[in-house]
Every structure is written in C-alpha cells, then in structure tokens.
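Lecture 7, part 2: worked example. A protein chain together with zinc ion.
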Amino acid sequence: MTAPPAPSQPSGALARYEAVIGIEVHCQLRTASKMFCGCSNTYADDPPNTHTCPVCLGLPGALPVINKRAVEHVLATGAAIEATTPPATRWDRKNYFYPDLPKGYQISQYDLPLAANGRLSFQTSEGEVTIGITRAHLEEDTAKLVHGTDEAGRRVSLIDFNRSGAPLMEIVTDPDVRSAEQARRYAEELQALLRAIGASDADMERGQMRVEANISLRPRGTEPFGTRVEVKNMNSFRSVERAIAFEIERQAAALDAGETLTQDTRGWNEDRGMTYVMRSKEDSHDYRYFPEPDLPPLRVDADWLASIRAGLPELPAARRARYQADLGLSGYDAAVIVADAQATVLFEDARSSEPNADPKALANWVTGAFLGLLKMDPEAAGRVEASELADLVRRVGAGELSGTNAKEVFAAHAADGATVASIVEARGFRQISDSGALGAVIDDVIAANPKAVADFQAGKPVLGFFVGQVMKATRGQANAALVQEAVRGRLEGDPGS
Ligand code: ADP
Ligand code: MG
Ligand code: ZN
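Predicted complex, written out as structure tokens:
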C-alpha cells in the first residue's frame, strides 16, 4: 500500500527550490490634507491639477509642514503590528529624477522609520503563518503621469499633480514569505488591518494599496539567498498570487537551465499571465539619501504613543478569535466577515440591534446574501440596514418567515430600502407551520405526482422535489423542515404524519 502524498508536499519548482519573498506595500493614508501642505487629500474624481500649491508642485522656496494625522496613522499601524517606534525620528531626501517628482527628491524616511520590527500573523491553507515586518515609514506620493495622444495625434505624457505630496505609508516585510499563497494572504490581512484602524481605504484596484514583491529562490536545504527580482503592477490579490507563482516557475526554469538571474524590476501583465523586464534595479546608495534640512526631527513622546495604542480598535485577528470563541462562528465565516469592512460593520450593528438573533444565522446572511449582493450591486448592498437584517433573521428564527420568503424580503429591502415589516405585510408573507393546513397541500402534491412517488419507493432522492412543489403551491410560505418530515412520513406509509 502506498501512502497518500502529504497535502503540504510542494509540487513542481517548489519541490527543488524554496521561495524567499519580501513584500513592500505602499498605501495612501486617510487624511483630510496632503503630507506637507494644506491641499485636500480627496481628489479621486476631480479634474487634474485642481489640488495643488507651491509645496506639492515643488516650487523653489516652498516649505513643508508635517501632517500630524498621517504620523498618527503610521504610529497606530506600528502599534497594531507590535513594532517599536524610536523616541526621535527624522525625514530624509531620496533623490532621483522623474517627471512626476518636480523637486528632484521625495521626502521619505531612511534609517529611522516610525515603526520597526513588527509582525503580522494570519491563516493560510497550511496553518498559521507569522511574517516579520522590517519597517513602516512615512513618505510623500508622486504626481501621476497620464500617457496619451494630443489633437495632432502626437504621443504625449501629461502630469496630474493632485496626487503629488499625498501621504503614503510604506510597509516592508522581512524575507519571511515562502509561497504565493502566503503573499496573497499577507496582503489581505494587511488590508483588513489598515481598514480596521482607519489608516487607509487600501483598495488595490484604486491604487490606494500597491503591493510589490521581491522574489528569489534557493535550493532547498541551503541558507544563502539567491538573486531577487522585484515585481510591480499587481492590481489585485489574485494578481499578487498569480504573479509570484509565475515568477517562481520562471526562476526555477532558468536556474535549472544553468542561467544566472539578473536583479531586475519586472512588471506583471495580467492578460498574458506573465512578468516582463521593466528596468534593472537601482541600489539604495544611488538615491543619495540625506537628512531633510527643511523639516525638524520628529520627537514621538511616550504619552502620545500610549494614547494612540489605547485608542486602537479591536484588530482583525482578535475579532476573528472572538467570533469563533464567543459567537460560535466557523473559522471560515469569521474570516470572511472580518476581511470586509462593510460586512463587519453590518454584522456588528445587526448584533447590537437584535442581541438575541442567532449569530450563526446572521453570519450566514452576511457572508451569503449580503456579500453576494455587494459584488453584484454595491449600491443596493449599501441600502441594507443592519436593524432590518437583524429583524429578518429574528423572524426566520422565530418561525414567522420561511427561508424562501426571507430571501425575497432581503432583495426587496435592498432594492429600495423598504422595511422588512412593510414588505412582509405587503406581500402577505406568513410562514405556514400548521401541519393541518400543510397536510391538505401535501396530499394534493402527492396525488398529482404518481411518478415521483414511484421514484421515492425505488429509493431515488426525490424528497426535495416534493418540498419544492409544496413551496410553489404555498408561494414559498411553508415551513420547509415540516414539509420534508410530513412528505417522508406519508410516502413511508405513516398516515398519521
Ligand atoms: P530596496 O531598497 O530595494 O527596496 P530592501 O532591502 O528594502 O530593498 O528590500 C526590499 C524587500 O526585499 C524586503 O521585503 C526584503 O525582505 C526583501 N528581500 C531582500 N533580499 C531578498 C532576497 N534575496 N529575496 C527575496 N526578497 C528579498
Ligand atoms: Mg524597494
Ligand atoms: Zn499642496
């Protein structure tokens, strides 16, 4: 007898090589104004170059002023990932030339980040994983280049300065990540964390959270790191996982063929499902970092840090644990709810409005009907009121409303915001749990379907068919569990049921 392969046994390239991956995330911080000036930091739908001033246009002589809220977001992130914050930090200039950077340098933090030596834990299909976080620092975003053609058909690159000087937090992991799945899960967990503490909306598709992965391979059982490649342009969690999986295979094939890898920056082409060379990689000494002379060093006093730490909300990991331990949710349901900020708020608010509603039933509605709707029709999902959902779940639990009718009520509520009570009233929904009333309908359905009765007697699974017919006859109002029992009883020859 041969033993089945262990589920965690790596396949393909990962059987020969171990992947070493470090992840850099840039996220746009949620603040009213930009990092070093008073321009509004909310510009997504505004015309280009309508949120600018001498500071964020990089005009000579303009002086930066530190945005306190942005600093607090990084300190809160640091506290949430159990990082340490130095008592004093400063700003540094990272020098390089690019048209989206008019000053010729980016104000960033080099050797004294606001947060260092943190960690983040999360679940994967192979169990819990903890990734070390090297640092989280604060910097300013660049302007945005828009490539196109002018009226004369010439190719032009336009610059939109609305994003220039927006506050950005960069979070860099240790090279602890070992697979494409771990990388995706890390990014998902980080997003949930940033949203929970309100530091960032962290929407990948909207560029509010940009994930870059450094990937290298080493032969299994060896220590030294191989040559790494940095991959950019991954615009969804799925692309993060796909791009890394591709890159692992590509590097393994190259190593197997005896090739030497080069330390490139590569882009991810979503349509073709492959990475391509963008440029060869700069080293940090090429940036000629030096302390920013226009800004004072920043002292982080212990009281400030302590009050930020004390103000942290419940973090995703703690919330998932509470949902499982106190509310009896499955690990899956807890993870699905906590991964989505809207689902979490809906679930929490519904529980406050109807504390006796069954948490598991409520979780089913949130993970199923609500998150399904959120994907299909976010506007309709936005109309779902926590108190109405709670009322719906209570009615189903109390046997007043059938599951089938409840789905219809949910859809009707989301369609225009009408209350559950008014929909139930208007449609005359009332669950029939009275066996006398149901009995007559069941008898009719059995009499009308001799073939299905024969199928039942031949051992075929036709109970669901009968339940469906009874539901149809009662406009979905029958108590499905009762119907199933009654049909079974009758067909098995127990006239009393
Ligand atoms: P850079 O200055 O180019 O951004 P860093 O030293 O800050 O480089 O590292 C960037 C990321 O790359 C970090 O997440 C780090 O853990 C990771 N990293 C460093 N060396 C390797 C390697 N050989 N293979 C994979 N990842 C690596
Ligand atoms: Mg980097
Ligand atoms: Zn400005």
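The radius of gyration is 29 Å. Residues 33 and 39 are 5 Å apart (CA to CA). Keep this in mind for problem set question 3.
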